C-alpha cells in the first residue's frame, strides 16, 4: 500500500514538473516541447497505473 501511494505521488510530481517546464521553456523550442510533453505523459501514466493498482489489485 505504501509503495502504491509513493508511486502515485512520484507520478504526480513528474507530471507537474513536466507541465511546469513545458509552459516555462516549451514556448520557443519545438524539441524541448516534445521532451517535456513525453515526460508529462510518463508521469501521468505512472500516477494512473499506481492508482488503478491501488484500487483494483488488492
Distance between the termini: 9 Å
Helix content: over 70%
Gyration radius, rounded: 13 Å
Sheet of most strands: none
Judged by helices, strands and strand pairing, the structural class is mainly alpha
Question: Secondary-structure element sequence?
Answer: HH
Question: Which band does the percent of strand residues land in?
Answer: under 5%
Mean pLDDT score, rounded? Answer: 92
Q: Let me know the number of strands.
A: 0
> Which residues form runs of ≥5 with pLDDT under 50?
none
Number of helices: 2
Overall body shape: elongated
What do these coordinates show?
- By secondary structure, this protein is mostly helical.
- The chain is built from two helices and no strands.
- It has helices at residues 2-25, 30-56.
- Helix 1 runs antiparallel to helix 2.
- The longest helix has 27 residues, at 30-56.
- The chain is elongated.
- The model has no long low-confidence stretch (mean pLDDT 92).
